[in-house]
UniProtKB/TrEMBL annotation, chain A:
Protein's recorded name: DNA primase large subunit
Subunit structure: Heterodimer of a catalytic subunit PRIM1 and a regulatory subunit PRIM2, also known as the DNA primase complex. Interacts via (C-terminus) with PRIM1. Component of the alpha DNA polymerase complex (also known as the alpha DNA polymerase-primase complex) consisting of four subunits: the catalytic subunit POLA1, the regulatory subunit POLA2, and the primase complex subunits PRIM1 and PRIM2 respectively. Within the complex, POLA1 directly interacts with PRIM2.
Originating species: Cyprinus carpio carpio
Lineage: Eukaryota, Metazoa, Chordata, Craniata, Vertebrata
Region annotation Disordered: where it falls in the sequence: 474-515
Family: Belongs to the eukaryotic-type primase large subunit family.
An annotated Gene Ontology molecular function: 4 iron, 4 sulfur cluster binding
TrEMBL record, chain B:
Keyword Transferase assigned: yes
Lineage: superkingdom: Eukaryota
Gene Ontology MF terms in the entry: DNA-directed RNA polymerase activity; metal ion binding
Organism: Cyprinus carpio carpio
Keyword entries, A-Z: DNA replication, DNA-directed RNA polymerase, Metal-binding, Nucleotidyltransferase, Primosome, Transcription, Transferase, Zinc
Cofactor requirements of the protein: Mg(2+); Mn(2+)
Name of the protein: DNA primase
Keyword field contains Metal-binding: yes
Annotated EC: 2.7.7.-
Length: 515, 402
């Protein structure tokens, strides 16, 4: 992409072909010139959109009616393409469908620049773009779906009527929600199993002789896989050409601001260091720790030991709530020494790993406490482990017992049972973070947690706020300050056009302050 | 309990050299791992690892020819042999390769079924022990997995091998299988997994509608063996303790009406407790981590198990019901057999063998109990060769080469 100037060049209707479908794979980068204003506006709006995708995805079951309605609303208000027909119908005083598609195209590529730099950023970007794509693909009619597949050279073989007939019973029982009629009426695609791994892994599809028989409505999963692979490769390539872009002083501040805005609170900057005493931990674990950390703390107290996965998850959390390195060493040592480890062995083997967590050993990375996503998705616990997310990794029956045992509310035994039922429903539907939020509501006796949970340390912070804790937790929301502290930020003396950029960034700040 | 009266681990240093000199089927082994020479350097870039005397472990062994393989094995006399992946370069030269470019490219898709993973549902043995009563679990595992890998996934060339002590391995050798990515291997392994959970989980199998055809196929195998295996051999209803274990898998309220367990048809509100119980007791337990990795090293067929002396022999699926792990020859047995002619050899064979013996370097496994297992391996190799030939004909037809 070239960014030669501020003047907007209007591209004629030769671009029409590029945007003749409302959905795209973002295969080709935009080739036109745009102004800085448009650059910034597009980027910020798409970021808002992706953030909404993330939030709505946590609050509602993905692709349920409410989810779709909410996303539709976001789409409209942010002016992203919704209609499948291009039409010349100009919305009175608004943006045409064509322009919305153009924005979609360009904003995606701008955000690639901001989000290609680290593994975490890439993962987040890919996840939201995939959810977005899935939602949009799902809204297409059957015909448009087929159109899309053809336009993008995804040639999946359809299963003949005779074959469908002979396999009818097998097809019905292999996918949820299919009946004899739907099998007859709907198209099925035959795809080599290697191209349908997500469906194979979860056994949601019929397999025969190495081919997966995919019902039409599931083809989105296959397409999504393809989308993810392409985007992942593209981001890796973008990262390589990034230095050239970053040297452009007009863009650098915005791009770095965009990517930091996502990360939000990663709890790596400990503004509360030393404000917690070790004696408080037992009490805090009952009041303000999310269930996973409470569980880990209890296991540590009982067994005087935790395995590596548990030490990492819990140790980094403790760092995030404000334990200093010395406190941490004291904490772990005193516990382990009560068990089978003598002080010497602790100093030799375990102390190193605690210091490592604080960035004082090895490559001196200051590790950040695990977010909920990380806890839920990576490193499932096995026999003898206590880490992970209890809503995800424990047996529902054991979870129920545990919740009942933690005498959560003196007044709420009547409240307790239905709330527990709600939690278990959420767990069944795989809304582990929502379940944990419900647990928060249960233990703090509030109707609404008032925040969208995605980090154990966030749970702690919110809890302390609610309980009027003894700690002053400063909210780390002043984004422009942070980006100035960031050594990677090469801020230049302000120029005429960067004042505008600053105003835009101010806008961005206020958007994220609501988190 | 496994009778090991004729095998003594202390004899290994004497037996192994003899085994590698005169019994190990090198030419078939080389034929297997060369895969018809279709891919250049396929054998040369294959990693082997050896465990030598005193537990010395060496990785990144590789060989350029069958001859070199033989000489090295006869020289190093490995106690254990593992086979790894085919790499981008010769493993023995991996240090000379620029960092990051030495990569595992291909490997057979493998499965490892280990009897210890069933300890929570076996009453007869535990840990490394096996007996004829629990061996049925392996039979069930092989039948279920073999069917699924062939019919569902379309693989054709499967080599099932007895591990030598307490389990079986499966080597899926199809071209397509060897080229699978890590993600694909893990997806296959998960598709085949029904038992979820460690010690914290009581109910390890949960079924819900609709029941996938794969599960139904597997259930029909389990049902065939269940009565004999679980009720008779394992006697799961034979003591209060084991009955309680079975009952723990049922929801509490089900006990409020009379249950006749021998009926196996307990269905409540669309749930399948009877099926779940049978699966929990009998369905194969895989270690997904073994199957996932392209560079994972697995025990080689025809290697020896140092603790039992048994040879890792291929299993003939046609004789699966009569396969007896305790009949698998030990290294001491076959070395002993080498010294004496077999009494039941037919005259003609005798003559042929004696003639063959004259030729230098002839393998003498034919005179031992190992022979029939090598034959199974031969048939497996034949089938792959026929298949490759068929593919080449197809290709040349398409290109109109005559």
């Amino acid at each position: 992409m070239q960014f030669p100037g501020r003047r907007k060049k209007v591209i004629g209707s030769s671009q029409n072909d590029l945007y003749d479908h409302c959905l795209q794979f973002y295969g080709q980068p935009p080739l036109e010139n745009i102004s800085l204003t448009e650059f910034e506006t597009f980027a910020v709006e798409r970021l808002k959109l992706l953030k909404s995708v993330e939030n709505i995805g946590v609050s509602y079951v993905k692709n349920s009616e409410q989810y779709v309605k909410k996303l539709d609303a976001e789409f409209s208000s942010l002016n992203f393409p919704l209609r499948t027909e291009l039409g010349d119908r100009r919305v009175q005083g608004g943006t045409s469908e064509y322009e919305k598609r153009r924005k979609d195209h360009i904003s995606h590529f701008i955000l690639r620049l901001a989000y290609c730099q680290t593994e975490d950023l890439r993962r987040w970007f890919i996840q939201q773009e995939m959810d977005l794509f899935r939602y949009r693909f799902g809204e297409l009619t059957s015909k448009h779906k087929t159109d899309f597949l053809h336009k993008n050279n995804l040639k999946y073989e359809t299963v003949s009527a005779e074959e469908k007939k002979s396999l009818k019973d097998k097809l019905i029982t292999s996918s949820y929600g299919l009946s004899g009629i739907t099998v007859e009426e709907y198209d099925f695609y035959k795809v080599p199993f290697q191209d349908a791994l997500d469906l194979v892994r979860t056994r949601k599809v019929y397999l025969l002789a190495g081919n997966a028989y995919i019902p039409h409505h599931e083809i989105v999963t296959i397409v999504l896989n393809d989308f993810r692979t392409r985007l992942s490769k593209a981001l890796a390539m973008t990262a390589r050409s990034l230095p050239a872009v970053q040297s452009d002083e007009r863009l650098q501040p915005l791009l770095s601001h965009l990517s930091h805005a996502y990360v939000g609170q990663d709890y790596s900057i400990q503004k509360n260091m030393g404000k917690i005493s070790l004696e408080q931990i037992d009490a805090l674990s009952g009041k303000s720790f999310p269930l996973c950390m409470r569980h880990l703390h209890k296991a540590l107290r009982e067994n005087h030991h935790l395995r590596h996965g548990g030490r990492m998850q819990y140790g980094l959390f403790l760092k995030g709530i404000g334990l200093t390195l010395d406190q941490a060493l004291q904490f772990w040592r005193s516990e382990f020494v009560k068990g089978k480890v003598d002080a010497d062995k602790f100093d030799k083997a375990y102390a190193y790993s605690v210091r490592h967590m604080f960035g004082k050993e090895g490559k001196r990375t200051d590790y950040t406490p695990y977010s909920c996503m990380k806890v839920i998705l990576s490193n499932p616990p096995s026999q003898g482990d206590y880490h992970g997310c209890p809503f995800r990794h424990s047996d529902p029956e054991l979870l129920k017992q545990k919740l009942q045992n933690y005498k959560v509310s003196p007044s709420g035994i009547n409240q307790l049972l239905p709330m527990l039922a709600e939690i278990l429903e959420l767990v069944k539907g795989m809304h582990y973070q929502l379940a944990c939020q419900k647990y928060f509501e249960l233990t703090h006796n509030v109707e609404d947690a008032g925040f969208s949970l995605n980090h154990p340390n966030q749970y702690f912070t919110e809890s302390q706020k609610l309980l009027g804790g003894g700690l002053e937790i400063k909210k780390e929301v002043d984004m422009s300050q942070r980006s100035q502290e960031n050594p990677a930020n090469m801020t230049r003396p302000s120029q005429a056009n960067s004042k505008q950029a600053h105003e835009e960034m101010g806008d961005l700040d206020s958007f994220f302050q609501d988190e | 309990m496994m009778p090991t009266s004729d095998y003594d681990p202390a004899c290994l240093p004497d037996l192994l050299p003899l085994y590698y000199r005169r019994l190990f089927p090198f030419s078939q082994y080389y034929r297997w791992l060369s895969y018809g020479g279709v891919s250049k350097n396929y054998f040369q870039n294959r990693e082997f690892s050896f465990t030598l005397k005193d537990d010395i472990y060496v990785r990144y062994q590789s060989f350029t020819t069958q001859n070199e393989l033989e000489k090295e094995m006869q020289k190093m006399v490995p106690y254990k042999i593992d086979i790894g992946a085919v790499y981008s370069h010769r493993p023995s030269q991996h240090n000379a390769v620029k960092s990051g470019t030495f990569q595992a490219l291909e490997k057979e898709l493998v499965f490892d079924i280990d009897m210890t993973d069933y300890d929570d549902v076996r009453r007869c043995c535990s840990a490394a022990d096996i007996c004829s009563k629990c061996w049925t679990l392996m039979t069930i595992a092989i039948r279920i997995l073999d069917r699924a890998l062939r019919e569902d996934f379309g693989f054709h060339h499967l080599l099932w091998v007895y591990s030598g002590r307490r389990g079986v391995h499966c080597w899926v050798c199809d071209d397509a299988a060897r080229k699978l990515s890590v993600a694909a291997r893990s997806a296959v392994a998960e598709y085949l997994s029904l038992i979820k959970g460690g010690e914290e989980t009581v109910r390890k199998v949960v079924l819900s509608d609709p029941i996938h055809p794969f599960i139904n196929h597997s259930l029909s195998v389990v049902e065939r063996y269940f009565c004999q295996y679980a009720i008779v051999e394992q006697d799961i209803l034979g003591s209060k303790e084991s009955v309680d274990k079975v009952l723990a898998l049922l929801p509490e309220d089900i006990l409020s009406f009379p249950v006749v367990l021998s009926q196996y048809h307990i269905k409540k509100g669309g749930q399948y407790f009877d099926k779940e119980i049978m699966l929990q007791y009998c369905y194969p337990r895989l270690d997904v981590n073994v199957s996932k990795g392209v560079n994972h090293l697995l025990k080689s067929p025809f290697s020896i198990h140092p603790k039992t002396g048994r040879i890792s022999v291929p299993i003939d699926l046609k004789e699966l019901n009569t396969f007896d792990p305790f009949e698998v020859p030990t290294i001491s047995l076959i070395c002993e057999e080498l010294e004496r002619p077999r009494a039941d050899e037919a005259e003609d064979d005798d003559v042929k063998d004696k003639e063959n013996e004259q030729e230098a370097g002839e393998r003498h496994y034919k005179r031992t109990s190992l022979a029939k297992y090598v034959k199974v391996f031969d048939r497996f190799l034949e089938a792959m060769a026929r298949s490759r030939k068929g593919e080449m004909l197809q290709k040349s037809d398409l290109q109109k080469d005559f």
